[in-house]
């Protein structure tokens, strides 16, 4: 007997289908143009290298399924369903019949088992993190459309992480010796858009998969996606206003007057709440090894002014110190939050008092504090070069810190540096987001599970622990709602007590659209999916509903 969890696609919420059915069938044709911030495009379509992940995720390499948090269901893609065993020691995945790769080869359970098992061979290929934390014991193809994943311990959450697995063709990848440096210049994929027709340093155009499994349903409506290269948000804004871009996923200054007002009928935006943005502190280094200093940093910040001035009021300020933002508002714990909310309230006088009491005082009279042992304090806040709203936010943070005697600077870095220092834990302070997944436990997993150290971005602050990892594991091994709520409360308390990061604001879902050429956009009134371009399933769901007008 198996435990059924939304076992077929017919039983699941399918965002793309909802969009398409609401609009009816449309003729095929047309090209969607989207911006990518990068120095240059290169002929590299390897999903594992992170070189150009936004060109391939979802639309070139389709997931087995994707959760739609906004609608509370699952959009089944290559798979038609899955089941957990009653003892929660395995999952059985059932694929759709008749799947093929873009080169015409059969896509079957062997490909899926191979793709999942790549993470066992090499931790850098483990997109779920579930080989690293030793959840997965084995994976096997039972028959051409059935895959069984066996666990080392009971688990009811593995389906949350499956979206991140890149399903790749075994007949292409099995002979690749170094799967990270492989360029995959002639990609073979499973998604709706796989054929590279234009490859330039400032533009890449990828067109429809000739063997896509939904072709018989007339999907996708659009023929191609054109990716255009831009250096930063400042270049994207005029391009969006000039109609060069159809789908924007970037910060746009004063969007109502600079964009919407120019063509109210066709220019629109929708910014639903997304992930919580934090200042991650390296608690292994002074002065961040001192809890009083970390709390004082947080209390020195006027988040409302930062949001209004640096981000035009689009984000939602963080009001809780317990690790969750507005994306997970349904999981807030009022009792726990009340204990720690004081540490995210703007109170420079309290911040100064904390610093004085902890021995962080101005010894040399230059207006800036030293550590209790007399060492100067002067640290950088890392942010990616070109992320203009975040750069401005970081600059304002340094100004507020200066007002309480803390010297800091904004350190703009290339993406590669940002990526490596977060993974290695070699930063001092880094401004980054948090996981916004299916369940809040995924956020805490990314914050504290020791298996994520060296793998994830947001766990290398020095406060990951076996105890917190055990709580995360227990959450996934029970279906008891009361115990799950207790576990979340314990993790919230730990966050409030240790404060390894300073919450700033809930990042909005940056989403602008131009309906001059393309129709079918999700809106606040048609909120069938959170319109995130930098997401496997959500991008795919939005794209599937778009059509040429």
What does this structure look like?
It is found in: Periplasm. Residues 1-27 form the signal peptide. Residues 77-453 form the Solute-binding protein family domain. It holds the Pfam family SBP_bac_5. The protein has helices spanning 15-23, 53-56, 109-121, 158-161, 170-173, 233-241, 255-258, 291-299, 303-310, 334-340, 348-358, 388-403, 415-424, 440-448, 466-476, 481-498, 536-545; strands spanning 2-4, 31-37, 65-68, 73-76, 79-85, 90-95, 136-143, 146-151, 193-200, 203-208, 224-230, 247-248, 267-269, 273-281, 316-317, 379-384, 408-413, 429-432, 501-508, 512-514, 518-519, 547-548. It contains 17 helices and 22 strands. With 549 residues, it is of the alpha+beta class. The relative contact order is 0.17.
